[in-house]
Amino acid sequence: MSHMSEGATHTRDAGSHGSAGPDGSAVRPELDAFRERVWAHFEEHARDDLPWRQTTDPYRVLVSEVMLQQTQVSRVAPKYEAFLRAFPTVEALAVAPVDRLLAVWQGLGYNRRALGLKRAAEVIVARHEGAVPSTLEELTALPGVGRATAAQVLAFAFDIGVPFIETNIRAVYLHEFFPGAEDVPDSALLPLVADTLDHARPREWFWALLDYGTHLKATQPNPSRRSKHHVRQSRFEGSNRQLRGRLLAELTARAGSGRVSLEELAAAVGFPAGDVGRALEALQSEGFVAASSEGWRLA
After folding, report:
1. What's the confidence (pLDDT) of residue 1?
2. Active site annotation includes 250
3. Per the residue annotation, which of 6, 65, 166, 176 is the catalytic one?
4. I need a labelling partner for 81 at 20 to 30 A (CA). Which of 13, 19, 88, 237 fits?
C-alpha cells in the first residue's frame, strides 16, 4: 500500500548544509538520507491493521495512546475495541463507575492509567465542553497525560508535529545516529527528532518512525538498551505491582457485595496482611479504593 501523497517528495537539497527545507525541517545530507530510509521502510512495511490508525477522532486517539503506555500493541488492540464499546464517548467515560472502568481495563495492567484517563475525561467535559484539546499545554494539563502522549495525540488526531521520544523512536535514533554508543541521554536525541521531523506530514512521519523502531527491536539487539534512560523491567511475581493488580481485581469482582476486611483480602490475594494494608493505603491515596471501619471497597 502506498502512503505517499500525490506529488510528495522527501528529497532535499543535500548541498545546503544546516539550512531549512520547505517544510521548516533541517537539511543535512545525513538527515536527508535518514528520512529516505524511514520513508522507504514505511512504504513497504506500514502497520495498516492497527485499529487506532483508522481514526483521527481525538478521544479515540487519546484512549489508544494512554493504553499503549508500557503495554505491547498485541495486548492493547483487543482491549482498545472493548473499551470503546463500553465507553464510546468522552462523556460516557467521564461518568463511568470505577468498578466498571477497572473491569473493562483488566488485563492491561498499570491500572492508574485507567483512572487517569477517566479523570482526563472529566476535565475535558468540565473545562473543554467535551472536546479533547489541541494544544500541548492543554493536553499536558490533563491527568495522566505527559509530553510524549500529548505530542502523539497532536500528531495522530490533529496532524500537528511536535518532537517527542518514546521507546520505539528512541531505538531509531540510537541505531541511526549513535551506533555502539552507551548511556546516550534523550537530550542528545530530541534535537535530531526535531531536525528530521516532516512538518508537511507529521502524522505519517511518526507512524513511520514507530514502525521502523518496532522493526529494529525485532531484528537486532534492542538499541534502547544503550539509552541512559533504559530501565530493566522488574520481576512481576511477588511484586507490589502484582499485589495492587490482585487487590483491584478482587475488589472489582466483589463490587456491589459490600465492604471487604483486610484479612479477607489478604487471604484472597495470597499476600501478607502487612503488605496488603500498605498497598490499600496507597490505592486509597490515589483514589482507587475507600475504607471505613467495615472494610474496603472500590472508590
Report:
1. 42
2. no
3. 65
4. 237
